[in-house]
Amino acid sequence: MTHRAVNMRTRALVWGRDRLFLSVAVLTAAWLSFEYLLLGPYSWMYGYGASLETIPVHLGLARSGSTWSLWAPFVAGGLDRLSFWGNADPFNVEPLLFTFLPTWLANGLHVFAQRVVAVYFTARVCADQLRLSKRWCVLAALVHAGLGYFTVGEMFAFASVPLLIWLLSWIDARRRWWLLAPAAGALFSTLVTFSQSAPYLFVFAVGWSALVLARRHGRPYLVIGLFFVGLTVVELPQTLAALANAPFSHRAAFALEPVSVSIPGLFYYQLQFDFLDQDKLLRGIAIALAPAALVGGVGIVLLRRSSKREATLLLRIALLYLLLSLKVAWIAAQALTMMALPWVAGLYMGRFYTLPAAFMISVLTALAANVLVHEMRPALLRRAPLVALVGAVAVLLIWPKASLYYPLMVDGWGEKHYQAPALEELRRSDTSIYRVASVLDLQPAYAYGQGFETADGWSNLYPSVYRDVWLRIIAPLMEKVPATRAVFDPPDGRPQDHYIFLGLSLGLAPIGLLPGEDPIAALQAGFDFDARFNVRLLSMLNVKYVFSRFPLQGEGLQLVHAPARPPRLIDNHDYATGLVNAPTTRFERVVLTEIPGRVVADGLQAIERKREGKDLYIYENRNVLPRFRAVSRIEVLPSGKGVLDRLEAMTLEELRSSAIVERASDTANALANAAGALTVGNMRVTCYAPDGIALSSSADGATFLVVGNTWNPAWVATIDGVPAALVRANHAQMGLLVPPGDHAIRLRYAPWYGAHLTFLSGFLAERCD
């Protein structure tokens, strides 16, 4: 046979192998995502990250014109667009999907593509780099599929880990690697988020090259370096935004993660698997796979002193897995970094482990099964590890279709989360500037997913002063229901930091019901809103409407809309996952105790319920304070705590007519001198956009303007084109001293990192300049 014939045969074999891998990837992805696509607008949506956190952020960004702006006005009273949550990066595929496609289709295609990438490139890495046979490559890929229940917001950060290391090796083999590497890194950045890429993936890539592939020459590491230079340059706006906002964020005061002499205290071992965590069986398998592979596979290699290639690979991958899971080492590195950057304490170091964990466990377990099959004695036991692993993978791939049917299909809403007709009508009927808030069990995401500005929501990075005010708003609830303090403001340890919620529940003890409160009576008369929250401070934050799944009662609350079918029972949705806590309806109970036809009937009822649309209670807060108002009094107090104490005790009229300023402000003395000669005058909003606001002012004397937007030092002001000093007022808002006469006022969000990004809002978003 000629050399050419050998090459042609080799290419044919490789093509046949790759076609097999692609077929497995497509079929597996179709199986894992069919429920997200099959029913169209009534499709399932995973209830944690996909349905309650990140999808509504994309929808809210699009509806508020903030996708390409530098400031997002709709969560926590407004925050830096590029530095919060996983949606901070506008240069990726997710905003395009959710801006231009129906929500169910965008979500379904996203889920499908994630699985294809994860499965196909896991198989390719196993074949090209580890040189495993096709069946072991397919098995490793299926393990990754079983562990890889990735969600929207992660984009492809987790799913593309095998793509990353396959791509780096492919570039290394090319002649123009020095040019391809940074270009590929820049393109790869569109698949990941800035908060889940470098440096976490860089550390993994170096570890894989050094420990698993045993590369001893410098070129592979130059490829890795250039690749991540390209990625980092494209992600730089988000990185700089985080650096600009982190020092004064709520995370700056966080303590380090605890380290203790225990497995969870010393090691990371839990996957990024909120999805799998909803079921005890799935959770147990996901956690047990890696220890089983380490004990069984590595144990037999060491016991038999095997030097086979697969055994050596297993030891190398096991070493990398253990190093990346070493929590105590990452926390120690974090503690050293804190010497220069104290706010780094707020970062979650577990991403060094969780990002590559699903892929690494898939390869680790496949290799362990391979080694055990060839090394175990007697021969009768050789197939047992393979059968056990295949069985575990089958459960991971099949059981969620059953166990999550009721939580996601029957109890869930899918994209109807963001299509409540009553909210659409409210947006059309009231076009003024205001905020809304939602009482759990109604997640804030429903509101900003429909385009409302919300005082509450989810955010990983926002000013600490806003959290201070929010804790005062929910202080009555935390005092009466101590269990809620463990989430929002624990005496020891970290709060669950991204929750800016009005409580955790209404009708569920011990996290919702007030002492002595009768939930059945409250379902008729309304749950006591005033006893739970400081409504005056909500009014100060410009909260004009309150949304709820259950009826409320409180001073100043006026019912605007009630559901056509008011709830007859108190049920509860988990504050974190959105899944129903009580009463529970589990698939296995139904099929074991009733005829299977009940399952189909419940599904059809769920479709009919979704067709009718989501409904809720809407209350207008008659005491809401305007977003922009002139006040007649300024009080200067010596400390932030003093300001908060004063705000918490003030009457509504005092809040309406006064502004409280901390003495530490640079302009506090000037404000104190002007306080006795203030006039109210007239304020009118002439333009309102995410990055900028224009107002006109007319007054006979000096006026102090309170801007009810969240304070951030990057906001700047001009009066008739002349720079003017903004001051932090009411602890978390902004104030501006305006001279007598008629003036044009401009407020603009201008962070130091954003000078070269003005095209984002200059060409792609509305501006008020």
Structural class: alpha+beta
Helix count equals: 29
Q: Approximately how much beta-strand content do the residues carry? A: 5-15%
Number of strands: 23
Radius of gyration: 28 Å
What is the CA–CA distance across the termini? 74 Å
**Helix proportion range:** 40-55%
How does the overall form come out from the CA principal axes?
globular
Please outline the major beta sheet: 5 strands, antiparallel
Lateral arrangement of strands in the main beta sheet: 16-17-23-19-20
Which blocks of ≥5 consecutive residues have pLDDT under 50? Answer: none
Query: What is the oligomer described by this structure?
Result: single chain
What does this protein look like?
- By secondary structure, this protein is of the alpha+beta class.
- The chain has 29 helices and 23 strands.
- The strands form 8 sheets. Strands 16-17-23-19-20 form a 5-stranded antiparallel sheet, with no helix packed on it. It has a 4-stranded mixed sheet with strand order 3-7-12-9.
- Helix 7 (177-188) packs parallel to helix 9 and helix 8 packs parallel to helix 14 (351-375).
- The longest helix has 35 residues, at 3-37.
- 50% of the residues are buried.
